[in-house]
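fyi for ur records
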Amino acid sequence: RPFNDPHFGYTGFKATQLASTQAYEQAGVTAQDIDFAEVHDCFTWTELTNYEDLGFAKKGEGHRLNRAGVTAPDGREPDNPGGGREVCHQGGSWRVGVSDGGDAGGA
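which gave:
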């Protein structure tokens, strides 16, 4: 267990839960408004837990997004379209975005 939180149960990250709640409030959006996500994917369980902590799925149901193809590159809510941790970011970073429906690549 993490030293500073003896009650940590390995079922989520409070920092991600709090940060996402604050970010959604500041942006005036909800998790349902998010079109894509770059989540920390150092381990399979971490990626799935982040889906849940970001509000994309209920606790214990993050795996259903993958199985249903929701997080696939051509899915309703692509996960790590930039390549994930191994390609573009380290640490516990994550980002989410709302698309304007245009070309995400831009010019």
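Residues 102-107 have pLDDT under 50 and may be disordered. thats all i got for now
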